[in-house]
Amino acid sequence: MKLRIGFVAAVLAAPLVVSSTTSAAQPDRTPYYWQVPHADEHVLADLGFDVEHGDGGAVQVVGDELTAVRLRGLGYRPSKFDTVYKPVLPQARDVGVQSFYGGYHTSAEHAKHVTDVAAAYPALTQVYDIGDSWRKTQGQGGHDIRAICITKKQAGDCALSPNSAKPRFALIAQLHARELATGEVAWRWIDFLTKGYGSDAEVTSILDTTELWVVPIANPDGVDIVASGGNSPLMQRKNANNPTGCSGATGGVDLNRNSTFKWGKAGTSRCGETYQGTSAGSEPETRALEAWFKQLFPDQRGPGDKDPAPVTTKGVMITVHSYGNLIMPPWGWTWDANPNAAGLRALGQKMAAFNSYTVVAEGDTTGTTDDFTYGNLGIASYTFELGSGSGSCGGFFPQYSCVDSLFWPRNKGAFLTAAKAAKAPYAG
Ligand SMILES: [Zn+2]
Which family is this protein grouped under (predicted)? Predict the structure, then answer.
């Protein structure tokens, strides 16, 4: 999530019951979303709190009872807003599938899925290793970051070259590891496209004319950390860099603050959740994604901040985050409207017709993925924020059943709209 947009909080909603093994002698380490009235989110972030959507003078902080104690010690009056963990429902598991928290797939399982799909649909797919995660660069295990191209392949299709015959729609997910529903939605998108070719007329038409690229897990090390908590997933947002010196699952660099376009005005506290890293593109995941975007899309926008991408621009990028029920086009680095604001808003509204999200520009953050892909390359770029802030399908850790009951059906049409717009996203 972007850690910035406010929404109306159902403050008095009863918290869900969670099982707890906490004894009276031990502080409750269960994480909650705390509502903190009369607080400035930037001040709290600078103090090292994990700050979430605020509204007016109130902000949300994620943390346990000790977090609340610390807030009270600073003069704040936090109140419990909702639980982070939802009841984990029993599920029918596929034999041999690695999953956690009711069915969410591990990084390894997502990698296997991409490979399996490619083996099953060789005429429709091409898989690439686009770079290494931080741990892999350090010889500490880790992962390849995988991209899959999906199209009805003709000669030259799915090449890592920006001058493709077909327009391209690139979707990435789970750059923030703890935003669990996002990778699952990418998984559903991959399956929907490959299984639908030849039977679903809309999918068939899109695959005949368009390349759909997907990176379902953009931060695989982070997802490993999250999954290590099992039915109590860890709250890791960032990558696995900087593993020492920060308490809890707070090491790492925020990969959605590390992109190279206008980098440098996000978090500078290395244990903070929005830590931007030591330099623009310092992280291997960022470098892998940016190199890959440059291989997919030519630079179609001038170098000036006010240079619009032309109406002939091809290409759409969506980076899937949670939460907030938002579709957010650039800019992040400034509140000023970008020079394609009208076109971006128009396409955003077409997508919002399917998921009912609010279309609103980002505003106050630097180093985001979509600022890079729009700012550097000119392609129509969006951050999706799946879901609301509370309830069984809300927050970072919605119940797994919400993927198929809510997130995927809500966003399928939005992704199809993006795919169909890839040939001319600013043409209206
Ligand atoms: Zn996010």
Answer: Belongs to the peptidase M14 family.
DSSP of 64-130:
-HHHHHHHHHTT---EEEEESSPPPPP--PPTT--EETTTEEPHHHHHHHHHHHHHH-TTTEEEEEE
Residues in the chain: 428
**What are the residues whose beta carbon lies below 5 Å from ligand 1 (ion)?**
1, 176, 179, 321
Q: What is the DSSP letter of 315?
A: -
Containing 212, the helix (H) or strand (E) segment is: strand 211-215
How many angstroms separate the alpha carbon of residue 220 from the centre of ligand 1?
Answer: 14
* Domain 100-421, CATH class in plain words: alpha beta
Q: What are phi and psi of 307, to 5 degrees?
A: -80, 115
Provide the pLDDT for residue 15: 39
DSSP for 245-289 reads SSSSS--S--TTS--STT--SSB--TTSTTB--SSTT-SHHHHHH
| Residue 408, token pair as written in the block | 């995927």
Cα 79 to ligand 1 centre (Å): 24
Measured between alpha carbons, how far is residue 115 from residues 121, 148, 184, 258 in Å?
Answer: 10, 9, 16, 28
Supply the DSSP string of 1-22, one letter for each residue: --S-------TTPPPPP-----
Q: Tens digits of per-residue pLDDT, 46-69?
A: 888 998 765 444 588 999 999 999
Query: Among the ranges 58-62, 210-214, 385-389, which has the highest mean pLDDT value?
Result: 210-214
Question: Which residue type does 241 have?
Answer: N
User: What's the mean pLDDT in 6-32?
Assistant: 50
Q: Please confirm, yes or no, whether 179 is among the known catalytic residues.
A: no
Helix (H) or strand (E) holding 65: helix 65-73
> What's the pLDDT at 6?
33
In angstroms, the CA 188 to CA 409 distance is 10
